[in-house]
Design brief:
By secondary structure, the chain is α+β, with helices and mostly antiparallel strands. It contains eight helices and 14 strands. Strand 2 and strand 3 (26-27) form a beta hairpin. Helix 1 packs across helix 2, helix 2 crosses helix 3 (126-134) and helix 5 (205-224) runs antiparallel to helix 6. The structure holds (3R)-3-hydroxy-3-methyl-5-(phosphonooxy)pentanoic acid.
Length: 325
């Protein structure tokens, strides 16, 4: 009762921002992401009759009680589904620079869902796996698939129609995503808390909901036509709208730091000079830049010139779930 799976992290171009059901992780809007080739989590799950509770090792070290409980609650859903009451040792290795603002939760829960279902002997389709992974971390449902992926929000109360759908394979369109590592403090408002606060209190949240479906349609159309400029524009505008909701929350908050603005301004300057580059930002200060492979080196150099930029990591579309046993 043992299996290993690898999942790659993803970056949303149209953001998931708000839940309609907190316990099932059902979103208020559909979202769209690119799964990345460079950052991933490899997880081995081993169910053992001799254990009297779950054990969670993260990068070789025993995780704290809070982290272990999160994993246990997630495994409970898989145990119920398999109708087996047996504990597991979970060994996760993160190839995700947490400092680069990548939530390892997307690749982490996708890899855990795949390894745990296989180890316990459940036969699941990728769609079912996406539904299971979603219940660990919303964005994890998109990491089941490679390339360009849409998470369809669904309408059902039980969440069985809220899952990811692959829209373009990783080999079908090569774009570059530069992950910009900034000198910054730890993030103060977790994505989970930030989205809850904006849904409940932001005077701009209704504007977000009005706009996001249109942005998604534009993004999908741009991908179908391989129209890089249109995709970059809508991704950047969508990220700005998401961040605008935080300013209208009660109490207001923002994820940006001065270094975030330095990168945003540099990207605008590059565009004025004729380069096609666009930024996106998740629930933290770090920035990801979308550009075309022919420009990636020039954009990378321009970003490295900024004082508060500590490093730039170049990524491309990557694969979905891989089983390693
Ligand atoms: O699934 P979570 O809790 O990591 O939330 C992700 C939220 C954003 O990164 C801001 C947007 C997204 O769609 O990934």
């Amino acid at each position: 009762m043992h299996a290993t799976a690898r999942a790659h992290t993803n970056i949303a171009l149209i953001k998931y921002w708000g839940k309609r059901d907190e316990s099932l992780f059902l979103p208020t809007n559909s979202s769209l992401s690119i799964t990345l080739d460079e950052f991933y989590t490899t997880t081995t799950v081993s169910f053992q009759p001799s254990l009297n509770k779950d054990v969670f090792l993260l990068n070789g070290e025993k995780a704290n009680e809070h982290e272990t409980n999160k994993i246990s609650r997630f495994l409970d859903k898989i145990r119920i589904r398999a109708n087996k009451q047996i504990y597991a040792e979970v060994n996760s290795l993160n190839q995700v620079p947490t400092a680069a603002g990548f939530a390892s939760s997307a690749s982490g829960f996708a890899a855990l869902a795949a390894a745990a279902t296989k180890a316990i002997g459940l036969e699941v389709t990728n769609q079912e796996l996406s539904i299971i992974a979603r219940q660990g971390s919303g964005s994890a449902c998109r990491s089941i698939y490679g390339g360009f992926v849409e998470w369809q929000q669904g309408v059902l109360d039980d969440g069985t129609d809220s899952h990811a759908v692959p829209i373009l394979h990783e080999n079908e369109w090569n774009v570059s995503i530069l992950s910009v590592l900034l000198e910054s403090e730890q993030k103060k408002v977790l994505s989970r808390d930030g989205m809850k606060r904006t849904v409940e209190t932001s005077v701009f949240y209704s504007g977000w909901l009005e706009a996001v479906q249109k942005d998604l349609t534009t993004a999908k159309q741009s991908i179908a036509e391989r129209n890089f400029e249109a995709l970059g524009k809508v991704a950047e505008a969508n990220a700005l709208k998401m961040h605008a909701t935080t300013l209208g929350a009660e109490p207001p908050f923002m994820y940006w730091q001065s270094s975030t603005l330095d990168v945003m301004q540099k990207i605008q300057e590059l565009r004025e000079a004729g380069m096609q580059a666009y930024f996106t930002i998740d629930a933290g200060p770090n920035v990801k830049v979308l550009c075309q492979p022919k420009d990636e080196e020039a954009v990378r150099q321009a970003l490295l010139d900024l004082e508060k930029v500590k490093g730039v990591h170049t990524c491309h579309p990557g694969p979905g779930i891989v089983y390693l046993d």
